[in-house]
Amino acid sequence: MSLTRAADLPEHVDVLIVGAGVSGIGAACYLQREHPSKSYALLEARGATGGTWDLFRYPGVRSDSDLHTLGYEFKAWTNNKSIASADAILAYLRETVAEHGIDRAIRLHHRVHGAAWSSRDAHWVVDVERTDTGERMKLTCRWLFCASGYYRYDQGFTPRFEGTKRFKGRIIHPQHWPEDLDATGKRVVVIGSGATAVTLVPALADAATHVTMLQRTPTYILPAPSEDLFAKLARKLLPKTWAHALTRRKNIAMQRFLWRFAQRYPRAARRFIRYVNARQLPKGYPVDEHFNPPYNPWEQRLCVVPDADLFKAISSGRASVVTDHIETFTENGIQLKSGRELEADIIVTATGLNLQALGGIALTVDGAPVHLPDTVAFRGMMLSGVPNFAFAIGYTNASWTLKVGLLCEHFCRLLAHMDAHGHTICRPELSDPAMPTRPLIDFAAGYVKRSLDTLPRQSDRAPWLMSMDYHLDTRLLREGPVVDPHLRFSSHVRPAAPSTPDVAVAG
């Protein structure tokens, strides 16, 4: 038997939050407000807070949702731009951190590699690396809250293209945008048609000789005003918190209407989007060639372009769209399967993201590894068979933070219930192991399809359904009961206190 000083034991917190982006900062604010007596820490692998909005540095990077719903319910968005730049969003997030004193709990350069649950001790032992020094350490926590999103921060997705080594210019992925890149007077080809591509094209067109958006498959794209006139009027007439709440409610209703309309009347939605696109483009433009996706609206996320900037760049001749397949890269550009060659000085591969479940954290429960595809999501925030673990994934058909806010509220209600009843362990359990399941993210985007076999699953019934309906989630997560027949609460046997205040006994 050996003696270990208490000072040598791992640091312990009630809740350990992983990720200091929009989800992690929000989780910390809710936790601090609802449970001020609980200890917590917020670990961030990178050297700055802000997550996505600090990572991406490509020209024009902005939101693709309005900030009255992408922002927090508890903090008003007062910027005139409703669809905002990354700089404005980052300032908003860091202002939230400062106002709530979250900065004292944030630890930068802390990457979580693994977490081991002990039922005997009712806590997680978390393996952490200091990315700036390489030092490894252990932390323990009663609850582990993963707020790292679902894609890899260190690596974007680029498919294999023939002939890339022959190309004399620069090949850039938006996730790793170099600070020294200057597109002035250059010919640029942007490969892709998603949110990143439609943001880059008009931003680069301001300086480049010409920008070509090369797409294999078109995407649904809608113009939207970057400023919300309703919000501006509301701020003039009402206190800012009231104005924010009213604008937020209006935008939630609009998002819900558009999505439900597209789901119920896909042909009508397709015709409407085509009509709007045609009005923004020059007369005689081949709309059906470049803006007519083969799938129904909202089977993939719809791209929003503020103030029709993409369409304006095309109409001015500064940008163009080519729909074709790549045969090979050449010394001077890209050879297409149609035989056409696109000359370029810079090629940007806006070809998507790589997903990474739970930030790549390896979980074990009482020594047994957790195989994520064998788990099922409970209420969209916990995993079957995994105790005292929560995660945050937002909506794909509306603003991400709408869902995250509800999840954080429910998480705080869950902690309050456990405290009130003396529980230390909470574990979702499947009553029917043969229950049919389906992919966690019911979305047709390529970056999702590539990684479905690495993610947890969902079912077609509550509480194992990954809901994408804000009003349904409000009733379930904000107003519904915490207890559920599939949620098992228990209390562990607490070890005897050490005989001296600074010594713990270890076997």
Automatic annotation (TrEMBL):
**Cofactor(s) annotated in UniProt:** FAD
Position of the signal peptide: none
One protein family per Pfam = Pyr_redox_2
- What PROSITE patterns has UniProt attached to this entry? PROKAR_LIPOPROTEIN
Q: Does the keyword NADP apply?
A: yes
Recorded coiled-coil stretches: none
Q: Kindly state which keywords UniProt assigns to this record, in alphabetical order.
A: FAD, Flavoprotein, Monooxygenase, NADP, Oxidoreductase
- Domain of life, per UniProt, equals Bacteria
Pinpoint the FAD/NAD(P)-binding domain residues: 14-224
Which Gene Ontology terms cover its molecular function? monooxygenase activity
Gene3D superfamilies xref list: FAD/NAD(P)-binding domain
Q: Could you confirm whether the keyword NADP appears in this record?
A: yes
| Protein family per UniProt | Belongs to the FAD-binding monooxygenase family.
Name this protein carries in UniProt? NAD(P)/FAD-dependent oxidoreductase
